């Protein structure tokens, strides 16, 4: 039951051709390849920071930090509110179970 059943193929499907014999070829030495010429290294443009771009970079960095901080604080606040509501529900349920046990 747990052994795989391999299908048997009585005859091969498709065309069957005998293997082709490959004849070895002789290698004749030719002229050596010329040495590669080193390409000139392109010089990278130098980035110059002007006062305007420095202010823009500082402003963009500040905006990114404020956005990420806001997102993280809101996630922390959501976790705090959820845990507080679960704690209140636990206290209410405990009170209901305790009052029900006193009545019996």
Which key phrases capture this entry?
104 residues, mainly alpha, 0% strand, flat
Count of discrete alpha- or pi-helical segments spanning 4 or more residues? 1
Give the number of DSSP strands: 0
What structural class should be given to the helix and strand makeup? mainly alpha
| Percentage of residues in helical conformation | 40-55%
What is the chain-wise order of helices and strands? Answer: H
Strand content: under 5%
Largest sheet: none
Which blocks of ≥5 consecutive residues have pLDDT under 50?
A: none
Average pLDDT, all residues: 84
Morphology: flat
Overview of the structural elements:
It contains one helix and no strands. It is 51% helix and 0% strand. It has 104 residues and is an all-alpha fold. It is flat, with a radius of gyration of 40 Å. The longest helix is centred in the C-terminal third of the chain and has 53 residues.
Blueprint of the fold:
Elements: H1 51-103
Short description:
This protein is mainly alpha-helical.
């Amino acid at each position: 039951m747990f052994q795989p059943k391999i299908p048997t193929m009585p005859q091969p499907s498709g065309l069957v051709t005998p293997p082709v014999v490959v004849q070895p070829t002789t290698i004749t030495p030719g002229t050596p390849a010329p040495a590669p010429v080193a390409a000139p290294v392109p010089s990278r443009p130098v980035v110059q920071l002007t006062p305007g771009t420095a202010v823009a970079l500082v402003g963009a960095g500040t905006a990114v930090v404020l956005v990420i901080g806001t997102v993280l604080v809101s996630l922390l606040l959501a976790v705090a509110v959820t845990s507080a509501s679960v704690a209140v529900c636990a206290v209410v349920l405990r009170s209901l179970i305790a009052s029900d046990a006193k009545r019996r």
